[in-house]
Amino acid sequence: MSFILQGIGVSEGITIGHAHLAEPAALEVAHYLIPKNQIKKEIARLDKAFASVRKEFELLQSSVTSGPAFAEFSAFIDLHHMILDDPTLSEATRNSIEQMHCNAEWALTQQMDVLLEQFEAIEDAYLRERKTDVVQVVERVLKALIGHPGYLPPASKHVGDSILVAHDLSPADMMQYKQNQFTAFLTDTGSLTSHTAIVARSLNIPSVVALHHARQLILEDDCLIVDGHRGIIIVNPDKCVLDEYRLWQRQLEIERRKLKRIRSLAAVTLDGAPIDLFANIELPEDLEQVKESGATGIGLFRSEFLFLNRDNLPSEDEQFEAYRLVATKMRGNPVTIRTFDLGSDKSLKGTIQIAANPALGLRAIRMSLAEPQMFLVQLRAILRASKYGQVRILVPMLSNVAEIDQTLHLIANAKQSLRDEKIPFDENIQVGGMIEIPAAALSLDSFMPKLDFLSIGTNDLIQYTLAVDRVDDTVAHLFDPFHPAILWLVTRIIQTANRAKMPVALCGEMAGDIQFTRLLLGLGLQQFSMYPAQLLTVKNQILKSHLPDIIPLVQKIIKADNPEKMHALLAKLNS
Ligand code: PEP
Ligand code: MG
How far apart are CA 464 and CA 311, in angstroms? Predict the structure, then answer.
């Protein structure tokens, strides 16, 4: 049967291929009846799963004995332990197996539903919220029952045209697929600027997120058309539709080849204004794409990706080698290494997210300052690499001046330790700040004297200004880069920095979206940093833009008093 699913296209292009399903969502379990003579065995299977989760909790509890989050973490594990040991979960599940002959997974999810209903009726909001903990504990037991195989699905038989269909993928999961030969990614959850989507874009293959029920509706080996541009999936298309998409695919390929011709041209507007086009990368492996894009620097190296999918932290030498490689290959062009932005949706393996609002919690520079030893290792590695190119340090998620002072102090310590050891580095290494929290945007006057450059992180700036969780697809429609408040903040940052002659780049997803290229040019932006695959399209737009024509229209847009008028003016600007 042919049908269409609509989601959010996060990485453009068209792929035609076969579905390969990732592991089932934890709560999607088989339902079957157990023969009477197997009941005891089924109960033993359940008990074994409970025991194994109990052991996991004990291990987790003993793995964290100190650190800033110790008390919170401990309380979290205690709570999960209590839920696990609560007879309403284990005994009632056992009873269902005994009396109704349900399989253990089915009995457990039924009992979970009963508990969730009881929680729903609780008046106390805090206790009601503990529903999530019940679900998490049940998920763990289910995984133990199923013998959780780990996320990476077994290889598909359709080598070369395999499309991964998953309920959810974390940024760390996506990184694992960098080595895998999938030709598109589809997920039920996600949004345009989630880090998972950003990694998908950096892989430069069509991806659609927020499909809601794709993982349930699509079957292994189904034929799929993935239209990353419109965010559409056509499942088991008929021949006519397939032919049309194949034609369109070929046209896109021709356009892509044509764009390659401008790869080595300088990015200059029609009236002669030079624009820097930099690339965003996650790992040194991305340099191949950077080279193909013709980027003249790295505007954002998301260094935290070096920390994901591993059991230990990367050592100073390992980090140094990664940074040195990028610095050397960029041959004197700027390489902006963002210090690790861990926390929130990018956690170290083995850590469990315990904050109620992780995006507002111990993330990025907050985590670096809470873990100074770990931070110093990174700072020394970056400084050592600075001998091999034009390396710059970029600090994420600044919200106040004290964070800048503390960071500069730690950089000074790292420099001194290298001097003491007679290890060379760039004494004048530049330190910049990401402006991605509204408070930072409003504090530029006190930030700028302490920094050498700024980089606007619109992904987070939008999330924090509009109070829209960037990973939550249920509010993805509210994530609006064109919201007047965002335009006001971005305008203010660019103009304040330009007045102070402080270099300012924009490295959020907005920089790679050609809808906004002319708008940003008209606001005075001279440095854009984006995923490499988008760079030539943006360059093409710059080459066709004439600032004296653009600026008056942009002025009208930022002064417009209603959204319809703004959108009409934006359309005119881009026509
Ligand atoms: C941003 O927030 O815009 C940004 C570039 O950083 P990240 O997407 O990694 O949070
Ligand atoms: Mg950010």
Answer: 31
Do 113 and 171 have their domain in common?
Answer: no
- Do 251 and 386 fall into the same domain? no
Q: Are residues 420 and 472 in the same domain?
A: yes
443 within some domain: yes
Strand order through the sheet with 3-6: 3-6, 232-235, 223-227, 14-21, 162-166, 182-187, 207-209, 8-11
Q: Are residues 394 and 483 in the same domain?
A: yes
CATH code for the domain of 190: 3.50.30.10
**What is the per-residue DSSP string for 140-201?**
HHHHHHHT---SSPPPPSSTTSEEEEES---HHHHHHGGGS-EEEEEESS--TTSHHHHHHH
How far apart, in Å, do the first and last CA atoms of the chain sit? 40
476 with 211: CB under 8 angstroms?
A: no
Q: Does 126 share its domain with 169?
A: no
Residue 183 lies in a domain: yes
Structure confidence at residue 137 (pLDDT):
84
The CB density around residue 160, as the number of other CB atoms within 10 Å, is 9
Distance 459 CA to ligand 1 centre (A): 5
Q: Which residues contact 566 (CB under 8 A, 6 or more apart)?
A: 482, 484, 557, 560
- Active site positions, annotated: 195, 507
Identify the residues whose C-beta falls under 6 Å from ligand 1: 198, 300, 302, 341, 436, 457-460, 507-508
Altogether, the residues listed in the chain come to a count of 575
Residue 152 pLDDT level (bands cut at 50, 70, 90): very low
3-class SS of residue 407? helix
We report the CATH number of the domain holding residue 101 as: 1.10.274.10
User: Considering the entire predicted model, what is its pTM?
Assistant: 0.76
Asked if residue 150 has pLDDT above 50, the reply is no
Mean pLDDT of 16-32: 77
- Name the residue type at position 70: F
Q: How confident is the model at residue 449, as a pLDDT? A: 98
Atom nearest to 455 CA in ligand 1: 5
Are 62 and 199 in the same domain?
no
Domain containing residue 135: 37-145
pLDDT at 127: 74
Counting ligand 1 atoms within 8 A of each CB, the residue from 436, 455, 461, 462 with the most, and so the one to mutate, is 436
For residue 496, the domain's CATH number is: 3.20.20.60
pLDDT in tens, 486-515: 999 999 999 999 999 999 999 999 999 999
What residues form DSSP beta bridges with 283? none
Is position 155 within any domain?
Answer: no
The answer to whether residue 523 scores a pLDDT higher than 90 is yes
- Using one digit for the tens of pLDDT, what is the confidence trace for 176-199? 776 667 899 999 888 888 877 887
Looking at the fold, whether 206 and 303 belong to one and the same domain comes out as no
Counted domains in the chain? 3
Residues 6+ apart with CB under 8 A from 235: 1, 2, 3, 4, 5, 19, 217, 218, 222, 223, 224
* 54: in domain: yes
Average pLDDT over residues 102-114: 91
Structure confidence at residue 134 (pLDDT): 85
Residues 351 and 474 in one domain: yes
Structure tokens at 145: 């029952």
